Amino acid sequence: MRTLNAAAGWLFVLCLPLLLLSASLAWAVNSHWLYQYGFSKYDVGATTGLADSELEKVAYGLIGYFNSGEEYIELTVTKNNQSLTLFNQREIIHLKDVKTLVWLDYRVLAGTLIYVLGYAGGSVFWRKGDYRRRLGRNLVIGGGLTLAIMAALGIGALLDFNWLFLQFHLLSFANDFWQLDPTRDYLLMFFPGGFWFDAVLFVVLATVGMALVLSAGGGAYLLRTRKRLSS
Q1: Which among 90, 129, 147, 212 is least surrounded, fewest beta carbons within 10 Å?
Q2: 83 pairs with which residues across the strands?
Q3: Which residues are registered as beta bridge partners of 78?
Q4: How confident is the model over 133-189, as pLDDT tens digits?
Q5: How far does Cα 133 stand from its chain's mean position?
Q6: Do residues 145 and 13 lie in contact, with contact meaning Cβ atoms separated by under 8 Å?
Q7: Would you tell me how many other CB atoms lie within 10 Å of the CB of residue 104?
C-alpha cells in the first residue's frame, strides 16, 4: 500500500508540469489578445494589406477552426473590396496538422487535470491527516519541477530560438507542409518568427505563474501545519 501511495504521489508530481504547460498552450491558442498583439507588433496589416477588422476575423476564424469539428479550414476575407480566400493547399494541410497537435494538447490537459483533481480531492476530503501534508509536499516538488523545465525552455529559446523552433517542427510534423514562403503565404505573414518567440514567452510566463501559485500554496500549508504540530 505504501508503494502504491508513493507511486500515486510521484505520478501527481509528474502530471503537474504537463497540466500547467498544456493549460498555458491551450490559453495561448485561444487567446484573441495574443493574436491581436502579434498583428499589431509586427505590422501585419501593412504586410498583408488587410484592414484591422479583417485581421480580427482571421484571429477568430483560426480560433474557431481549432475548436471545431471541421477537417480543413476555409477562411475568406475582404481585401481591396474583393473577396479573398486566404490559405492555399499547403497552408490548409499544415493547419490541419497543427489542429491535430492542438487537440492532443487538449487531451493531455483533460487527462492530467482529471488525475490531479482526483489525487488532490482524495488527499483533502477522503484520506486527510498526513495525506494533506503529502499533497503540500508534492505541490512544492511538482511546482519546482515545472519551474526547472520552464527555465530550461526559456534559456534554450534565448540562446537559439530558431534552432529550437526548427527541431519542434522536425519532431512534430511528418511532412514538409510547414515549409512555407513568407513572400506569398499568408500564414507566415500573420505569424512571423518574432511572434512565435513572443508566444513561447507567453506560455513560459503563464506556466511559471501557475507553478509559483501552486508551490506557494503547498509551501504555506506545510509551514502552517509544521508550526501546529510543533506547538
Answers
A1: 129
A2: 78
A3: 83
A4: 899 999 999 999 999 999 999 999 999 999 999 999 999 999 999 999 999 999 999
A5: 30
A6: yes
A7: 13
Percent with pLDDT over 70 in the chain: 96
pTM of the predicted protein model: 0.93
Q: What is the DSSP string of 123-136?
A: IIIII-THHHHHHH
Structural domain spans, the chain: 2-31+99-230
Residue 118: CB atoms within 10 Å = 12
Residues 6+ apart with CB under 8 A from 21: 146, 149, 150, 203, 207
DSSP 8-state class, residue 185: -
Separation CA 186–CA 168 (nearest Å): 21
Q: Which residue has the cell 508534492?
A: 138
Nearby residues of 222 by Cβ (< 8 Å), 6 or more positions away: 133, 136, 137, 140
What mean pLDDT comes out for the span 109-122?
96
Q: What Å distances lie between residue 52 and 43, 44, 133, 220, CA to CA?
A: 10, 9, 52, 47
Phi/psi for 76 (5° steps) reads -120, 135
Give the three-state DSSP class for 150: helix
CA distance 98 to 177: 11
